[in-house]
Amino acid sequence: MHGPTSVSTLAVWVAVLGCCTSVVSGMMSKSQKTQAANKLNSLVGHLGWDAMEEVKILINKRGDVAGPVSTIRQAVRSEQRAVNETNVLKRHKQIWTVLTCKYGEIMFNYKCLVNHYIGVCQSEERESLESFRRYYDCVDSLLLRLHNLAPSFKCMWDALMYIYSVAPQPSSTQKRSVMDATRILAEYTGSVRPTTLVKFTQRGHRTASGVDHEMTTIGERISQVYDDHVQSFIHHQCEVLPANRKWTANTLVEQFEQAINAQLIPQDTTMLQYVQNEMDTYVDESMGKWFYNLGFTYTRDGVITIGTNY
Question: CA-CA distance, 227 to 219, in Å (whole number)?
């Protein structure tokens, strides 16, 4: 299993997107529709799409919802062609919207995790040199985890771009906004640690107030990307239920206390250790369940493709 190429290759996909928008869906030839249908059938044939049946999308302005993956997977289980030349554009739009809704949900959860992590770090006492070291170590552990998030955002960007390129349709700013968010966050999380550590070596920055400022800036930046690029799409295209959002500002504390009380975790587990474990586990789950298990993979050259469905 090969991983994504470096974030710098995002520029290549940007160029691809520009080329794709010139292809109007209604002008696709029969052979192009056949090729697109074959790719989509190969993708949704992977068992991981069963987990996507829970994702509901809005289908009209009245707020009615549908779960198109249920119909698609039922056809697959019945050994029928879920996608054909007649419905390929409809199915393509449904698959792309469902995947975008899921990735928007993941980015919401990442945003909550990062901001809570920052809050846990900032709750550390910083009066003594020893306590400041603990605070700085907490911050550095967050920076490392942000760096480790970059491949996850890159995978989401690649997956959305791949789906889009299969049967490009006229796009709007809102429809491309989540793709933009994954690209922005892939670049940002991939560079924020070295950039921030350089700042900490400068005079006046490796202080409690200097570190506080950088942490607040990071939290605000990630929240801003979500608010500017993801929130509107989610509101207009996806059914978002409280159960779909793994964390909010308060649920992490509640889950931590419940886990302690139920003895699901060691009694001496700290809130920081709990959040670190939740973040590490969720990142691994997102990469596996919502990328590789859906059939996406990379070639040896780091190019995204559809894997073999065994």
Answer: 12
* Backbone angles phi and psi of 95, in degrees to 5: -65, -45
Would you state the pLDDT for residue 241?
62
pLDDT at 263: 92
| Residue closest to 87 by CA, chosen among 122, 127, 38, 37 | 37
Q: Is the separation of the CB atoms in 168 and 20 below 8 Å?
A: yes
Encoding tokens for residue 264?
């699901």
The answer to whether the CB of 102 falls within 8 A of the CB of 55 is yes
Amino acid type, 269: T
Predicted local confidence at residue 170, as pLDDT: 57
Using CA atoms, how far apart are residues 77 and 10, in angstroms rounded to an integer? 35
Cα torsion angle, 84, 88, 90, 96, sign: positive
| pLDDT score of 17 | 47
Residue spans per domain, the chain: 105-297
Give the whole-angstrom CA distance, residue 230 versus residue 100.
Answer: 9
What CA–CA distance (Å, rounded) separates 251 from 257?
10
Q: Which two tokens stand for residue 252?
A: 């992490």
Residues of the chain with pLDDT under 50: 7-8, 11-25
Q: Which residue has the tokens 């044939």?
A: 45
Long-range contacts of 222-226 (CB under 8 A, 24+ apart): 222/110, 222/111, 222/114, 222/115, 222/185, 222/188, 223/111, 223/115, 225/181, 225/184, 225/185, 225/188, 226/107, 226/108, 226/111, 226/181
Class of residue 203 by CB neighbours under 10 A (exposed 0-12, middle 13-18, buried 19+): exposed
CA distance 128 to 33: 67
